[in-house]
Amino acid sequence: MKRFLDLDDLTDDRLQAVLRRAAALERAPITDDLRGKTIGLLFMNPSLRTLASMQAGAQQLGGSTFVITPGQGSWTLETRDSVVMDGDAVEHVREAIPVLAQYADALGVRCFAKGKDLDEDLADGLIRQMADLCPKPFINLESALAHPCQALADWKTLEDLDVPRHGGRFVLSWAYHPKALALAVPTAALTMAARRGMDVTVLHPEGYDLPDPVLGKARALAASSGGSVTVSHDRRQALDGAHVVYCKSWGAPQHYGRPDDEAVLRRELRDWCVQESWFGPARPDARFMHCLPVRRNVKVADEVLDGPRSVVVQQAGNRLHAQKALMIELLTEGGA
Ligand code: CP
Question: What domains can be seen in the chain, in order of their start residue?
Fold first, then answer.
């Protein structure tokens, strides 16, 4: 069964084919590749881009969608196994997923990290459980540790901008956010850039080291692709010669699941709001990337988001083209 849980699910050949198709769909958006097909979308968490781009994308390919948002017009869902369901949840995913799969030709599911147990979230088990329950093609629309649709769109954005694969300098920078955020997007951006063969620097304040399994995977990908992964706490050093700064916040792993403890560390870090002055040592044409949504003047200053470096809207636009190509890959004979 075809499923897209992480970028790893596409071989290098298929990844390049999907990116080529995404570029073609950007030039000629309307096709009938999904005529008569329905994509079921289950959103356990909120979305703007993913929800709208999946719906618009399916429609532009001649298909249709239905959207389930548990607790908002449909039953609240339980995800834990072997639990006595005497709380708020009315229905279990063990029934809900195979039921929805009968109404659709593929399912896309968003289920974020629970944010309580680091090992549990690093295992990314819930999205795999959902995929295992689905007898149809399955798309991860962001899970505890992965956001492969974002990674695919970001890869296309780098191609569109002619950012070099080998020798391209990609900085993944931590930024301040009032809450401890999940690891899915930083992991997706880091592993995408490493697999693309770029020289990646992970820039963050003390205490915000990405977990070893995340860094280890990125380093293994870089070793295969001819790229590199380093870690820095020094902003000037990290941005020296950078082609791209990709900003994202994440929670301190040492305080995972304990937001009150983490807040003590975090409250001293409000100056980690990306400013134009950060780009002094970067290439003059360095780009700023962020997956969105973003809190202006908390995480990133207006001057950056509204300035010529920012490609955040282009990134979001590429979600549409990339996911359309992905749906064709997963749902049609012509895809593979
Ligand atoms: N970047 C992203 O996935 O956006 P949404 O959360 O709005 O879908």
Answer: 3-147+319-335 (3.40.50.1370), 162-310 (3.40.50.1370)
